[in-house]
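pipeline: protein-struct stage 2 | run 1193 | Protein PTHB1
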Amino acid sequence: MLLFRTEPSLFVSPLSEPQEIDFKAAEQEMERLKKSNQIIKSKSVIHDVRLMIHVESPLKVSQNVFVFGSVAEGSQAVTNAFLEFPYIPSSLKVTAHASYINNYGAPRIIDASALLPFIVVAKPCPPVKEAEIKIMIDINKKPLLLNELFPDMFMDGTSSYSGGALGIEYYSGHSVTIMPSKTAQRYRIQSDQLSALWLVVSELVRRLQHKFRKEPDNSKLICSFTSPLPLPEYFKIIEDHFTGCSKETSH
């Protein structure tokens, strides 16, 4: 079994005052983390095991290669997952690749993947009412309250105001606000940086799919994006990237 310990505190400022903790939400989040921590588990003895762990930069694990002579049920490998640099990662996905020799002497390779907790890369912050870039996600269900979808972001009581919005700040310093509509079946996600939107949008859709996975009417959740694509901002990010690369090469 492979266990991940997360270290979001690398870029978290200490709280100035004690905060009340929602223990029920914390317990629910802990159960979710326990499920995501169990990546590989052996039910029988296998030999010559080589386990490799991969995450996308700037995420990093404290140990990415494990070698075992043999692995039996109950064996485990433990590694810490954290942000090496305060940038926004493209994905929270962690992949484990294992090669081994089975009981019949035949080589085998297996892969497994999971998602790291969102709090590894972001923390709650006060939401903002206006931002330069906005994306609307329409759904075919009644919008859920954000404290139901993101209990891990409401544990300190600082991320929401009376309108039900959620503020999220990456450890890069970029912030994103999610606002559920009061009159329509949609969410508005906004930020001053286009690059900050992707991970939050992906996490919102994933959590909505999880919440609506067992609907009584068995109707499938549909998420749609009908607004114009923010192509000027997208092309500017690409241009800035290549400009930065050119400057580094010239030096």
